# Entry
Amino acid sequence: MGIHFPSWRIILSVLLVLLFVRSSSSRMISDSQLKDSAGDDSQLLIKNGLVDHQMHHMDPSVHVFFTLDDLKAGKKIPIYFPNKDPSDSPHLLSREETNSIPFSLSQLPYLLELFSLSKDSPQAKAMEYTLRQCDVEPTEEETKICATSLESMLDFVRATFGLDTQFKVLTTNYLTYPVTQLQNYTVLEDPKEILAEKIVGCHVMPYPYVVYYCHKAEGGDRLFEMLLGGEDGERVQAPGICHTDTSQWDRDHVSFRLLKMEPGTSPVCHFFPANNILWVPLSA
Ligand SMILES: *[C@@H]1O[C@H](CO)[C@@H](O)[C@H](O)[C@H]1NC(C)=O
# Structure
C-alpha cells in the first residue's frame, strides 16, 4: 500500500516548486509593476496582503484538504481555488509539435537555450525538477506517464482502462467567475460518490509548455463530486478524492498540519486545481 507515496510526494513537491518559482518572481516585482494590475498570481497575493503569509508561514494555496466528516451538505471548508480564468489556460501541444522538442534531462542545456532561460533561474530549476520526475522509471507495471500531448495522455488512459472502455473527464469547474481565492466554502449538496474501479489523475507540472504528470489512483481511494458555494455567491463544482491509507505518508505532510491529524489515523481528502484532469470509466 506504500504505492500512494511516490505520487503524493510528487504532487506535494510540485506545490513547493510552484511556490518557489512564484515567490522568486514576486520578489522581482517593482512598485510600478504593482500599481498596474495585470492578472498575475503573485501580484494578487501582494495586493491581498497574503505575501507575508505565503513567505513566512504557508502558501495559501495549500488549503485544498478536508476530511470524510466534511462530506455533508452544510459543512464549511476553507479552500483555495486559484482565480485564473480557466479558458486562459495554455492548451496541450499536439504530438506532432512536441515530437520536434526533446523531453529529457540529458537535453536540459539545449532546452534552456531553446526557451531562452538562464541556467540559474527558478524556471530552469523547475524544468530540471520536472524532467527529473519524468525520467524516473516506473516501478512495476506502467502506472504513470508524463504526457506532453493530448494523444499521449489518451494513450495512457486507454491503456489503463482497456481499449473498449469509454471514459469521462472530471475537472474543477467555476460555475461563476471570478472566485475569491481563499475562503470558507459551504458544501451545498450531499456529495455524490463516484464508484470507479480505476481513476487516472493528471496534474500540471512546471514547464514552459503544458506537461501533465498522469498516474493511476490506488485501490481504496474514494472519489466524490461536490457542489460548493462561496460567501459571495460563487459556485464551484469540484471532484474531491479521499486517500484511505495515509500510514506511509511523511508525518510533516502539510495536510496533517492543516487537518490536525497524524499519518494513518483517518482518510485525507483534497480538491484539485482547475487545470487538473481526472479520468474515470463511463460505467462509474
Ligand atoms: C473560516 O471560518 C472559520 C470559522 O468561522 C474562521 O476562523 C476562518 O478564519 C475562516 N477562514 C477564511 C479563509 O475565511
About this structure: DSSP finds nine helices and 13 strands in the chain. The chain has a mean pLDDT of 80. Residues 4-27 form the longest helix (24 residues).
